Amino acid sequence: MISEVDNSVIQIINLKKYFEGVKAVDDISFEVKRGEMFGFVGPDGAGKTTTIRCLCGLLTPNDGNIEVLGSDLKKNKKEIQNKIGYLSQKFSLYGDLSIDENIEFFAEIHNVRKYTERRNQLLDFTRLTPFRKRIADKLSGGMKQKLALACSLIHKPEIIFLDEPTTGVDPVSRRDFWKILSDLQKDGITIFMSTPYLDEAERCNRVALIDKGKIISLDTPKNVKDSIGKKVIEVVTSKARDAYALVKEKSNLEVQLFGDRINIVVDKFSEESGDTLSLLRENNIPIEDHRIVGPSLENVFINLINKNLRANVQH
């Protein structure tokens, strides 16, 4: 049983889930603290959705233990499900029902009888009040996500699980959604969110980076970035692809391509910075700008994946 002292509301020990022999979730363990925003970060197929569905009691693990809000999920599934909210990647709104009617429907599912005041609060909170009579099929992608969030919050859950909530949402709606999540956290709700977006993960209290069913790093965003002991030379050039290919061919350094710039990962105190810039200039690569920066979560994630790949090849 989770003690009140350690303040954990989710505790996972040696969780495993297989599909036809494929290890979707491969022996992971971690905990989530009350009131934190916990980011679960990884590419498609990493095991994010499978883990969340196991935590919500929608999938049965092959092995391992899960405790949510101090209760064993195997023994108290229904009780736990009444205290959590879940926003899936494909949340099922009813397209022929209005915003008001969708929230009413989910209130009834959760046996919330006096929901009018709560619904009004959620509509104000998500800025959907002016559109409350509009049917769901006529909403934009961002508005659908806000409505889905309102539906999952109608019964006042203590934890909300969000599975890639901003995928496919326009930048303005994405910013609005993050403001809503920040306000939810201020109200004391624990947020467990999966995302493929590394910039979103930067906003979380702690992040777990997951790849191929295994957690490869777990800490605060700052500590995860510091953990690899590297710096990044960011070079802006009109020949970014050529620069990327050159560094890849002529050095052993890790290089990543981002639009009109390349990021070259170097040791913190190395002399490789000047050597690399000289290499580019000698090969007629125009350097429009360059700077030494700390690694982003994206740099770290790619670095860790490449490190694991190298380790597997050596074995």
General description of the model:
By secondary structure, the chain is an alpha/beta fold. Residues 1-5 have low confidence and may be disordered. The chain has eleven helices and 14 strands. A hairpin with a 2-residue loop joins strand 12 and strand 13. Helix content is 36%, strand content 28%. A six-stranded mixed beta sheet has the order 6-7-8-3-9-10, with helices on both faces. The protein has a four-stranded antiparallel beta sheet with strand order 2-1-4-5, covered by helices on one side. It has a four-stranded antiparallel beta sheet with strand order 12-13-11-14, sandwiched between helices. It has two domains: 8-220, Rossmann fold (3-Layer(aba) Sandwich); 229-294, Alpha-Beta Plaits (2-Layer Sandwich), CATH 3.30.70. It has helices spanning 48-55, 77-81, 99-109, 116-125, 141-153, 171-186, 198-201, 221-226, 240-250, 272-282, 297-314, and strands spanning 8-19, 22-33, 37-41, 63-68, 71-72, 84-87, 159-163, 190-195, 206-211, 214-219, 230-236, 254-258, 261-267, 289-293.
Secondary structure blueprint with pairings:
Blueprint lengths: L7 E12 L2 E12 L3 E5 L6 H8 L7 E6 L2 E2 L4 H5 L2 E4 L11 H11 L6 H10 L15 H13 L5 E5 L7 H16 L3 E6 L2 H4 L4 E6 L2 E6 L1 H6 L3 E7 L3 H11 L3 E5 L2 E7 L4 H11 L6 E5 L3 H18 L1
Parallel strand pairs: 3-8, 3-9, 6-7, 7-8
Antiparallel strand pairs: 1-2, 1-4, 4-5, 9-10, 11-13, 11-14, 12-13
Helix pairs in contact: 3-5, 5-6
